[in-house]
Design goal:
By secondary structure, this protein is of the alpha+beta class. It has eleven helices and 14 strands. It has three domains: 5-177, no CATH class; 194-321, no CATH class; 369-452, no CATH class. It has helices at 43-49, 97-104, 135-138, 204-214, 225-228, 262-272, 286-299, 328-382, 391-398, 403-423, 434-452; strands at residues 5-17, 24-31, 39-41, 57-60, 73-82, 87-94, 111-122, 144-156, 185-187, 194-195, 234-236, 246-247, 251-254, 257-260. Helix 6 (262-272) runs antiparallel to helix 7 and helix 8 packs parallel to helix 10 (403-423). It is elongated.
């Protein structure tokens, strides 16, 4: 079997299961859609590869930093996988206390998953392009279709690339037992759908009727439930084929397309935070629902309201639950605290972007250094300074040298090879003579003096 092609994609935490015993975090790993790197995996390839993730480690950079590292720190291991509706979820047991704290505190979440592809085809012609992209992919007409792969590693990173990724809920698993009630209730993964005109009025009953028809209804038996749920923020996975299992709708069908409606998003958020009596969903799912709706707020360039679980703290006329208003001094202090929190969030975002760029630059530099090492080793093998059987050992040795030393080694190896070529007499009687040996050794000593400033002692 060939070595395969290493590919990477980013995802993020899907849910967290907390408790006094085992600590689990479930991640939205990937789906079968085309990603921003212009490749996708087939449904069968995903189904075949997913069990191979079991038992592998979840990592971070030593020092509890994020993004990829050559020698990562293991903070968890994968204990469960599943593939509902064309996307993959994987659950890891978090074995590290610091990692668990950062997950629960919202500081960590996104992960980068590395896969190794063994069969790649062109989406246009279906040709095998495992070894290299064809003209369709290079020219932008097509994309790479991954038909066979395995999972290599998973590391925490600074931010996700898959739009569906986000924190969804909290729970736990009993000690020594199989995973408990995992994702019985579920937040609908975020999807950046088309925006309806912002002035569009919101009538949830009329919108639900249109979505029901769009999903194949109105008859329950004809509804495509995976299509229907895209209009909502939450559904009960144990009772998926009941209309009442879907809550917090914020999408409508506009001109035949599923569209997110700003007034629907705002109404759903207010209900989640306690307006009109609130919504009956598991407590552990509320943070995930909030994250889903918050991303729609940002989609409309609106300020996201502060998350809370107390129904008495809802802002605005819809969320008013009675009680005395805050004094002027308290309101001013609260405003300053909120502004400070926003600035701190912006600072953390900048730090995350800086770390990400530094990691990318380091990866590029590592690749360039590896190329320089390979070039120097090739030159030394061709010059006869290193035997072919010793190539790997020479590679390991030269890896520790800087680029300047590698360049000198390569140049000198080329000169040795040229000197040897000139010393070889033409014709069938050419042999290795004492004169040839003297020429070779002289070239080696020239290289020694150039690199180390001295020649070998006589």
């Amino acid at each position: 079997m060939s070595e395969g092609i290493e590919l990477r994609f980013w995802a993020a935490v899907h849910s967290i299961e907390s408790g006094d015993e085992e600590r689990l975090a479930t991640f939205y790993v990937l789906n079968t859609s085309l990603n921003l790197n212009n490749w996708r995996v087939t449904d069968k390839a995903l189904e075949d590869a997913l069990p191979g993730l079991m038992g592998k480690s979840l990592n971070c950079i030593p020092g509890y930093r994020v993004n990829h590292a050559h020698k990562p720190l293991q903070v968890g291991r994968w204990v469960r996988v599943e593939k509902p509706d064309g996307y993959a979820l994987a659950t890891a047991e978090i074995t590290d206390d610091v990692a668990w704290e950062r997950l629960n505190g919202g500081e960590w979440g996104p992960v980068s998953v590395v896969i190794r592809a063994f069969k790649v085809t062109c989406s246009v012609c279906g040709g095998d392009i495992t070894s290299a992209p064809d003209e369709h992919v290079v020219g932008g007409e097509g994309h790479e279709v991954i038909e066979g792969f395995r999972f290599e590693r998973v590391d925490f990173v600074s931010r996700p690339a898959y739009p569906q990724s986000d924190l969804l809920n909290l729970g736990h698993m009993a000690s020594g037992g199989a995973p408990g009630v995992l994702l019985v209730a579920s937040v609908v993964p975020f999807e950046e759908t088309v925006k309806a005109p912002e002035g569009r009025t919101w009538d949830v009953d009329e919108a639900e009727a249109r979505v029901r028809s769009w999903a194949g209804g109105p008859d329950k038996e004809e509804v495509d439930w995976s299509r229907y749920r895209r209009a909502f923020a939450w559904y009960d996975r144990e009772d998926q084929e009941v209309f009442g299992s879907y809550k917090l709708q914020h999408h409508d069908v506009v001109d035949g397309m599923l569209s997110v409606v700003w007034s629907g998003v705002s109404a759903a958020m207010q209900v989640l935070l306690g307006a009109r009596g609130g919504v009956d969903v598991p407590e552990g799912d509320r943070r995930g629902i909030y994250s889903h709706l918050a991303r729609h707020y940002r989609q409309f360039d609106r300020e996201v309201p502060e998350y809370h679980t107390s129904r008495s703290n809802v802002d605005g006329p819809q969320g008013a639950q009675g009680g005395d208003p805050d004094p002027e001094g308290k309101r001013e202090k609260k405003g300053m605290e909120e502004k400070l929190a926003e600035l701190e969030q912006e600072l953390e975002a900048v730090k995350g972007e800086k770390q990400e760029l530094e990691s990318r630059l380091q990866a590029i530099e590592d690749e360039r250094h590896a190329e320089r090492v390979a070039t120097a080793v090739d030159a030394r093998v061709k010059a006869g300074l290193v035997k072919e059987a010793e190539r790997q050992a020479e590679t390991d040795r030269l890896t520790t040298l800087d680029d300047g030393a590698l360049a000198l080694l390569g140049e000198d190896a080329v000169k040795v090879a040229e000197s040897m070529a000139k010393a070889q007499p033409a014709g069938p009687k050419a042999k290795y003579t004492a004169e040839d040996r003297d020429t070779f050794e002289a070239a080696v000593e020239d290289a020694r003096e150039r690199l180390f400033g001295h020649r070998r002692a006589e």
